[in-house]
Amino acid sequence: MHLSRHADYALRIMLDLAAKPSSHIGEIARRKATPPAFSAKIVRDLVRAGLVKSIRGRKGGVSIAREPSAITLLQVIEAVDGPLSLALCVHGENSCPLSRSCPARPLFLRLQRIVTQELKAVTLEDLVTMENEGEKGGHAVGGGNQKRSGKRGSQAASFRLASR
C-alpha cells in the first residue's frame, strides 16, 4: 500500500491546521513544504469533505472545521483519494471476476479491515500530541494516546511521525 501524494499533502495541511487552526494556504504550503497550487487544490477537496472551512476576503484563508480530536486519518485520506481500497475485490464479489475463487481475497478483506480500523483509530489530535512529544524525545503512535482516548492501545499499529 502506498500513501498518495494527495493524501500525504492533505495530512500535512490538516496537521498544520490542527496546530494553528487558521492560516493562509501559502503560509501552510511554505511551512509544510508543499506546492502552493497543489495545496490549494487539496484544500478544496478538504473543504468539500467538511474538514476545512474557507474564509473569504482580504484577511481570508482556511481554518479547521472541527476539533482535531474529531478528525481521523481515514477521513483525511478518503477526502482526497476516495474510499480506501487495498484491492479491487474488497468492494464486493462482482468487482473482480476472480473474487469468488481467489484464495487471496480473504487475506485482502482482513487487511482492508485492519488498515481501516487503524486509520480510524488515530486522530489529528493524536498526531499533534505525538509530534510535540517527538520534539521532546520521540514517541510512536499507538501507545499512551490510544489508551487516553479510550481506543485499543495494545493492538494499535505503531506509526512513526516523519519529520517534514
Brief descriptors of the model:
single chain, 164 residues, mainly alpha, Arc Repressor Mutant, subunit A, three-stranded antiparallel beta sheet, 3 strands, 6% strand
Describe this structure in words.
- The longest helix has 17 residues, at 105-121.
- Strand 2 and strand 3 form a beta hairpin.
- The protein has a domain at 1-82: Arc Repressor Mutant, subunit A.
- The relative contact order is 0.12.
- The protein is built from seven helices and three strands, in the order αβααββαααα.
- Residues 139-164 have low confidence and may be disordered.
- Helix 1 packs across helix 6 (124-135).
- The chain is mainly alpha-helical and 164 residues long.
Please report the first level of CATH classification, the CATH class of one domain.
Mainly Alpha
Residue fraction in strands? 5-15%
Q: Which geometry do the CA atoms define? A: elongated
Could you tell me the CATH topology label of one domain.
Answer: Arc Repressor Mutant, subunit A
Helical residue percent?
40-55%
For the sheet with most strands, the description reads: 3 strands, antiparallel
As residue ranges, the low-confidence spans are 139-164
Distance N to C terminus: 21 Å
- Quaternary state, please? single chain
Count of beta strands: 3
Q: Sketch the topology as an H/E string, one letter per element.
A: HEHHEEHHHH
Radius of gyration: 17 Å
Output the structural class.
Answer: mainly alpha
What's the CATH architecture of one domain? Orthogonal Bundle
Largest sheet strand order: 1-3-2
Chain-averaged pLDDT:
82
What is the tally of helical segments?
7
Write out the CATH superfamily name of one domain.
Winged helix-like DNA-binding domain superfamily/Winged helix DNA-binding domain
